[in-house]
Amino acid sequence: MSEPRVTLYSRPGCHLCDDARAVIERVCADLGEEYVEVSIDDDPQLQERFGEEIPVTFVDGRQHDFWRVDETRLRAALAL
Predict the structure, then answer these.
(1) What share of the chain is helix, strand, coil (3-state, %, to 5)?
(2) What are phi and psi of 37, to 5 degrees?
(3) What predicted TM-score, i.e. pTM, was given to this entire model?
(4) 47-65: per-residue pLDDT in tens?
(5) Which of 10, 23, 40, 48 has CB 3.0 to 4.6 Å from 17, enough for a Cys bridge?
């Protein structure tokens, strides 16, 4: 199995993370893609890197969005 194309950096109790996860789950399910979620609270380097910009979404290893996930942009990125 290949690596998930989408990574969601989040933290527990984050309502924007919950919103982003819902969009990512829907888009990935529609397109047959996988995603992985990583809590920045488990890694001090991630906490320093992303701080209050969470949720942060990466597609194919590159930063795609932060704070909110635009469903149309995510679908377009995964269509490439």
Answers:
(1) 50, 25, 30
(2) -115, 135
(3) 0.93
(4) 999 998 999 999 999 999 9
(5) 10
